[in-house]
Amino acid sequence: MDIRTLTPEIAVGPQIRVEDLPALAEAGFRAVICNRPDGEGPDQPNFSEIERSARALGLEAMYLPVLSGKVSDADGVAFGQALQRLPKPVLAYCRTGMRSCSMWALAVAGQQPMSLTVDRATQAGYDLSGLVRRIANGGKTPVEVAEASHDIVIIGSGAAGIATASSLLARDPQLDIAMIDPADVHYYQPGWTLVGAGVFDADTTARTMGSVLPRSVHWLKAAVAAFEPERNAVILDGCRVVRYKQLVVCPGLKLDWHGIEGLSETLGQNGVTSNYRFDLAPYTWRLVQDFKKGHAVFTQPPMPIKCAGAPQKAMYLSCDHWLRSQVLKDMQVDFFNAGAVLFGVADYVPALMAYVQRYQIGLNFGHTLTAVDGARKVATFSQALPDGRKEVVTTDFDFLHVVPPQKAPDFIRVSPLADAAGWVDVDPATLRHKKFDNLYALGDVTNTPNAKTAAAARKQAPVVAHNLLRGLHSGPGPVPSEARYDGYGSCPLTVERGKIVLAEFTYGGKLAPSFPSWLIDGTQPSSLAWLLKERILPPLYWEGMLKGREWLAHPEMVG
């Protein structure tokens, strides 16, 4: 039997036979639903045979037949009513399980996020792409689908999205651009490290979305439900359809706070904090100031994550404050890193190790945080052993800075845009999708092997803007050259208050300094680099990058 579980209460599968029923009863199923009309195939038992044998085994059986490819809205409602009435768990079957899965998806539409429904179906081996509009519309076939159409549609109005829109408009102010994002506030996230160290006030890192969007773009304040790239369409929540000629996808990534057991319940209390959240960065600074002795633990999850240096930045700045306050001697500081090295580019490790030794930080590699008990102040880790096995390790803490695991947004992971790991699948140089020629992606959501930083997005935006307009080129004259992204990323590692190790590198970890070594040697702590981070980069972000001014970001041209 090919049984595929959708939830603990419902599984689906292909045609069952009378001789399968004892095994189903033994597996714990309490009811079966037949969604296949009798006589559909020459090798198919009639439902009456299934029903008779099922009841003899104490199983309930229901006949809810649907013609192949003809699942109606009413069928979804009937399936939902059957699930409410029947004892659980239930096995629903048809010829392949697809009809049963479709009826379940329509039944739960509106009761859970569409991405969750599509994801569970995908994991079970069923493609629901043909149902996304109905699922997005609460399980009902849209009668009047509202449609909008724009030359360029950009998903996400974070740093990457706004920079791309502004770079496009700088090249052609007459472009018809729509930006889709439900958020009301735009954040300068690179500033949160300094908020957690008492250098910045949190309010300086936030502005209203309306104040930072380019004036000529159309802001569609909505969430994306699904993509139909073959039809050049995006489906929004509520089943509104937005069509495009060119699509740019840059919604960022998802911080999976629920990926660590107990973390969500204790964040912001019990000494547990994270600079990865706007409202918690000030709490980090309060904890740092109040902490006088005990065990301080800093964590880093498996890659990829947004700004791979940020977990260390919080640690170094906290230790610097404790050292200056003369309380570090009364503390034990530990860094639990899921990775195998302190930093991915070896040239910067010696300078970082000097600070690790200065602050007497214990390094624990191969440790992934799996659970937090805030009340008991205990953190649980999965430790990777050299022989490939894993073991559970626990440690107490008085101060815990957590970086959550991170992944692509749900609506991206279940879309046809994603690779096997869930990230948007693009060419690493052109940032064009590998399958859909009029689709580009940039920022944290792509599967490019660069560091996921705002600095990377600053370099990527002009590449996408140029190549997108190149794709729209239809006039006389030669086709413009193609722009290429070299993987540039930057991570200003705040090793102490007033000094930074300015890591800059491209694909493969090749160093890519923006300044001559006599001015800023990125492999060594620098006061000038701190000045850059504190005083220059914020206005460069707000008034440069978000305005389409491509200072030090002009793309390389090929061909």
CATH superfamily (homologous) name of the largest domain? FAD/NAD(P)-binding domain
Give the DSSP E fraction (strand runs of 2 or more residues). Answer: 15-25%
Quaternary structure type: single chain
- Gross morphology: globular
**Count of individual helical segments:** 16
- Low-confidence segments, given as residue ranges, are none
Helical content band: 25-40%
Protein described:
The chain is 28% helix and 24% strand. It contains 16 helices and 28 strands. The strands form eight sheets. Strands 6, 7, 10, 11, 12, 13 and 24 form a seven-stranded mixed beta sheet that branches. A five-stranded mixed beta sheet has the order 1-2-5-3-4, with helices on both faces. Strand 11 (224-228) and strand 12 form a beta hairpin. The mean pLDDT is 93.
Summarize the structure.
This protein has 559 residues and is an alpha/beta fold.
SSE map:
Layout (H helix, E strand, L loop, with lengths): L3 E4 L2 E4 L7 H6 L4 E4 L12 H10 L3 E4 L9 H13 L4 E4 L4 H11 L5 H10 L8 H5 L10 E9 L3 H13 L5 E4 L4 E3 L4 H4 L10 E3 H4 L5 E3 L3 E5 L4 E4 L4 E9 L4 E2 L7 H4 L5 E2 L7 H10 L3 E7 L9 H15 L6 E7 L11 H10 L2 E5 L1 E7 L4 E7 L5 E7 L2 E3 L4 E2 L2 H4 L25 E3 L12 H19 L9 E3 L4 E8 L2 E7 L21 H18 L11 E3 L1
Parallel strand pairs: 2-5, 3-4, 3-5, 6-7, 6-13, 7-10, 13-24, 15-22, 16-17, 16-22, 17-18
Antiparallel strand pairs: 1-2, 8-9, 11-12, 12-13, 14-23, 19-20, 20-21, 25-28, 26-27
